[in-house]
Predict the 3D structure of the following.
Amino acid sequence: MMNYEVFFIHHSYFQSYFQSRSRVLGIETDHEEEKQMTLPTKEIVLAPGEGNSLAIGINALTFKAIGADTHGRLGLFEMTQEPGGIGASPHLHREMEELFYVLEGEVDILVGDQTIKAEAGAFVLVPRSTTHAFTNRGTERARLLVMFCPGGEREKYFEGLAKLTQGGQKPDPQALIELMRQFDQEPVDVNF
């Protein structure tokens, strides 16, 4: 029997989350807006390694749920980082939160002004407009889940990045900045 990593996206859970978040933020919603906050009722079930994958340098990225699956509410990706693999240089997002959950190995995650050595089981939530970055400085492969809220079309950023780094090439700096800014990613000049 095959083991499955199961990603169930159940609409009632996320509907409750978005409704409670709206109440906390003092945002009034009417019934029509609440209907728009619900996610699809179709489950997504993927076996380990399943999902559309692409290579970005020496790292691999597998899309588990994309914005089109969730009405743009979130995107969930699994990243595999080889030792020495840079996940992202320092940057921020103005329109989305980013969440990291380390499945195996160890990654260094910059969030705000602190660097965390995140081991398997560690979770980091990066609020909007917060500088962050991550890299695998260790000697072992690392795997982590990365979630974007809202997800929008975030996968298109990674597809563009894969093209810019195809064949191990270093991306043209101007093309990279243009791609980043197209998908709500602003580079930040800090040491990491």
Helices lie at 11-24, 31-37, 154-164, 173-182. The two ends are 44 Å apart (CA to CA). The longest helix spans residues 11-24.
